[in-house]
Amino acid sequence: MTCWPEPMTDPTPQAPHLVLVDGSGFIFRAFHALPPMTNPDGVPVNAVYGFATMLARLLREHAGTHLAVLFDASRLTFRSELYPQYKAHRPEPPEDLRPQFSLIREATQAFGVPGIELPGWEADDLIASYATAIRAAGGTCTIVSSDKDLMQLVGPGVCMLDPIRQTPIGPAEVEVKFGVPPEKVVDVQALMGDPTDNVPGVPGIGPKTASALVNEFGTLEAVLDAAPDMKKSKRRDMLVEHAQAARLSLQLVTLARDVPLPVPLEELVTRDPDLTILAEWLSRMGFRSLLSRMGMTPQPASVHAHRSARATAHASANGLPTPTAQDTATSAPAQAISSAPYDKYETVRTAHDLQKWITAAQEAGLCAVDTETDGLDPLNARLVGFSIATAPGQACYVPLRHAGTLEAHTGEQLEPDTALNLLRPLLEDDTTLKVFHNAKFDLLVLDHAGLAMDHTRAVDDTMLISYSQSAGLHGQGMDELSALHLGHDPISYDSVTGTGRARIPFAQVPVEKATTYAAEDADVTLRLWHVLHPTLRTNQALALYEQIERPLVAVLADMEKAGIAVDRAELARLSADFEARMKDMEAGIFSAAGREFNIASPKQLGEILFDEMALKGGKRGKAGAWSTDSAVLQELADQGHDLPARVLEWRQLSKLKSTYTDALSRQASSAGRVHTSFQMAITTTGRLSSTDPNLQNIPVRTEEGTRIRQAFIAPEGRRLISADYSQIELRLLADVANIPTLREAFHMGQDIHARTASEVFGIPIEDMDPLTRRRAKAINFGIIYGISAFGLGRQLGIPAGEARSYIDTYFARYPGIRDYMERKKEEAQTYGYVLTPFGRRCYVPGIAEKSAARRQYAERQAINAPLQGGAADIIKQAMVRLPRALHEAGLHSARLLLQVHDELLLEADAHEAEAVARTAKNVMEAAATLSIPLVVETGIGQNWAQAH
């Protein structure tokens, strides 16, 4: 059986071919793919336009004898009864989409196509049941959708058709995506879960592990049965503990195939639409170009539909017709994105051919560039090849270091230096915009290959373009953005290199296969730029991207190259000391437990705490094991129990030893410097994070944290300079919440915690005792994070009732803060996101949770995100300005090394250290203008602890 639109022949007229359209899935894709449009009545209709276009194409080109569109009737289905959290976290549809649901149902009527829905069942279940029924009747079925949840239906007589790419999805395509044949898809889905639909799955089990397990054992149940006998590992523990969650997940992802059919099969026979009715409806919607394409004339009542100035790239990038001037009162110029296929790419093997591509890129003034390497560390990885895209569908791959394999010869390759010398003028050409996805990585790779990073002015980054307007809404990886905005699932790295032990280095991938993969990455990046860049302005994120995120790429790349020196001898001493202390702790732990056990084993610890010692408050996981995470142990410790307090202390020291004192020596380069990697698009708030190693989680106010910082040093003749914002989030709170008393305190340079204690507890500042100040400090910082009375009470060691009275008194004295908190919660509930004072959107997906605990957590996020995000915006702005300020001040020995939340760490020659500290302080304090002053505290030292 063949999927439409490929030619089909029906050898027997009695064999029906049923085409089922996933209407609900297509609605959302069309809405996000097309620019905003309104009909003559001012009602949004962009999704309606996309849907109508799709139906028109189906009727013109499909080979089915029967046709129906399936819709979701409501959110509540039998799955909601099985698992109330199923899809419960999904936000309400966007305001502009809601009125379009009824119009889309009108569209099915106007086109004469049955639109089917059934309360209590999802559209997917109806599709499964109709597909089953048509097969039982001896017919075949094509499902018009790319939804992964429907891929379990693919098999003999049933295939899918991606409505955007117009490509069939059969068993082979399903196996590429899931790693298993269609009949085992549900087993894989049940293991890995689905955060989009809130299907729990087994924590820590991703797609690759899930498919490997199913391939090895056959079914989900077989995997779970085998789990207890597997080799001891975190994976085994998770499978045992979450077995029931996996079984529940299997029920949630398995489609029902026996739903009573609301409309009999025989009533789904494809019919030509009534052209009079259809023309009247299209005219009423203002879809003049669609009328023209269908050979009809507008009815007299027709008026042009209007669209906003958003670029039409959204539509063409998703394979949807872009609304033309016929459909719009004003037509904003935009570079259309070709609907060209994703697989017509060229392998460039000669200097002559590469020069042709570079010339084409310069003539276009725009290209996308992507690199392929033999490793993930851009400071050490070798360049294996690079790709260039000059227009959608027009891309090439330049192999440089592919090695021959038994399966395929590499053929001719350019000598790396020759290729890079040809590429250099393109990278240095300020008149040609180079688009990357995660530009920092590629620029560091090219820098390591010999192309210095002094060409970053004409660079865009699609990852950061997306992140600047959608932090927290979804991931920012290229594959995820491609699926979301282009309706295209790029070739996976695993499908090219293999997985597990069978994985080969990219340099050993045959060049032809590497070309298809690598050139597609550049092609997708360029198409994403066309789609996403115009939305920066409409989403009011252009200044944030252009002034902060984009220029920060080069700053962070330089910081990563610089690294920071560590004292290996001091780290070794610390490791030995921590190990000795842990041994001493273990003796105390065994004494408190009454016997020896594996302290690192949650299972053994749980048995001692809750079975043998019979402590109250234990909770078992779904697999029956006791939970012993830090929250559980902290609660027991707060109740005065000795053993959990000792274990918490042991765990903290163990983590510091493994993460820092042991690891840093291994991670240091031959020059004795550690090079962290700054992640620019991970957090919801805009904060940077650091990995390999993570230098942002070193404890600040503990003896151990101080000793670890002492191991970060300045080389001989140089100094470390720390510049740290003082109480920046409290200052932002006083500013945005407009609290006169706090503003006055900051202007006067008063101790803000003593001032708060004085205001709340009625004690003169000069008579303030340390305990009262500490309580005021806990409230000040706790309010930023939406602290509860229980949380504050536990922090201060007082009853929750007493803590509640402190919080109530605080809000009575500062009602503006409570008003601010309520405003932010309402903002998140209304829009799905909150804004920082500088316009950054911080999405809060959990704000619509039905679970009170999860919703309250999201509300605390909504309160804190503008403050934490605002602080991130300020320090990023300072980082962008600081290198130039240091250069203009003649401080050429200075360089930025680290950013840790509100602190910047620099290194400079000893004789320039004081001047560097002054310059850093001036730049950071001037990075934003608030109603109260920003204050930066600086320090200079031979090591980080001294400077901090």
UniProtKB/TrEMBL annotation:
Enzyme class: transferase
CDD domains: DNA_pol_A_pol_I_C, DNA_polA_I_Ecoli_like_exo, H3TH_53EXO, PIN_53EXO
InterPro entries, per the entry: 3'-5'_exonuclease_dom (IPR002562), 5-3_exonucl_a-hlix_arch_N (IPR020046), 5-3_exonuclease (IPR002421), 5-3_exonuclease_C_sf (IPR036279), DNA-dir_DNA_pol_A_CS (IPR019760), DNA-dir_DNA_pol_A_palm_dom (IPR001098), DNA/RNA_pol_sf (IPR043502), DNA_polI_H3TH (IPR020045)
Span of domain 5'-3' exonuclease: 15-271
Keyword DNA repair: yes
Catalyzed reactions: DNA(n) + a 2'-deoxyribonucleoside 5'-triphosphate = DNA(n+1) + diphosphate
EC number: 2.7.7.7
Annotated Polar residues bias: 319-335
SUPFAM superfamilies, A to Z: 5' to 3' exonuclease, C-terminal subdomain (SSF47807), DNA/RNA polymerases (SSF56672), PIN domain-like (SSF88723), Ribonuclease H-like (SSF53098)
PROSITE patterns linked: DNA_POLYMERASE_A
One BP term from GO: double-strand break repair
Key words, A-Z: DNA damage, DNA repair, DNA replication, DNA-binding, DNA-directed DNA polymerase, Exonuclease, Hydrolase, Nuclease, Nucleotidyltransferase, Transferase
Stretches assigned to the 3'-5' exonuclease domain: 345-537
Region Disordered: start-end pairs: 307-335
Subunit-level organization: Single-chain monomer with multiple functions.
Name of this chain's protein: DNA polymerase I
Annotated gene: polA
